[in-house]
């Protein structure tokens, strides 16, 4: 068994399909299938069961998984040690994040980390849902609540704040808002109720309103609706500086505090490289949230 065989095994286990693994490995599904068959023959054990849902690990495949992941971490560490500049981080890092942080925080935070580590490549995966780190959809993920299950480590990054807001043009064209009672008759912008993937994103109740006139599963789309003067919405304070003309409404009355959490696979604690990347990411996010909120 060699590392290249384990790399193919990990790709199939995470993608749960030969075609998905092929896209990651940049080869065709038939080649991936042959490599898995060769590995199974060499080990004398069946590693996957094919079903209508895809490729699932057998008991033997499940036992191989942690060994393959340890080999992956060892190869990354060796590459870092031998191929990079002393003290610098190299290789690739994939970060999963909800689209609010992915759009308004991570671009500048990750750019600064890459500037300090020229051999490092960072991919930001922005999805409005919880990431599955067990399938290695990402190396680490940012969440809006700590997970309660799985072999994961969780670190609180920072609190952040949200307020009701609207564009000045919208406020100038509609009746004044001096209290929550004045919100009746105004159009609310927010999440599509049945697509809220985390209870921490259920903001509507704080306004006293019971429905949204314009909704999206993307907080960035919601922010663009607010910026376009389409109505009122609960927005991240750290996003307001990116949207000229958007101002807080009833800031002393309608205010929320939420938290960002850094979520990692438990086995990654043994990786000095990932520990250093996690710390750089945590420090950068804390600084950027604090900086942008002072501008809001």
Query: Mean pLDDT, as a whole number?
Result: 88
**Number of extended strands:** 11
Question: Number of helix segments?
Answer: 9
Percent of sequence in beta strands:
15-25%
List the helices and strands in order.
HHHEEHEHHEEEHEEHEEEH
Distance between the ends: 56 Å
Helical fraction: 25-40%
Detailed description of the structure:
- The chain is an alpha/beta fold and 296 residues long.
- It folds into three domains: 3-82, Arc Repressor Mutant, subunit A, CATH 1.10.10; 88-158 and 259-295, Periplasmic binding protein-like II (D-Maltodextrin-Binding Protein, domain 2, 3-Layer(aba) Sandwich); 160-256, D-Maltodextrin-Binding Protein, domain 2, CATH 3.40.190.
- 40% of the residues lie in helices and 22% in strands.
- The strands form two sheets. Strands 3, 4, 5, 6, 7, 8, 9, 10 and 11 form a nine-stranded mixed beta sheet that branches. It has a two-stranded antiparallel sheet with strand order 1-2.
- A hairpin with a 2-residue loop joins strand 1 and strand 2.
- The model has no long low-confidence stretch (mean pLDDT 88).
- Keywords: DNA-binding, Transcription, Transcription regulation.
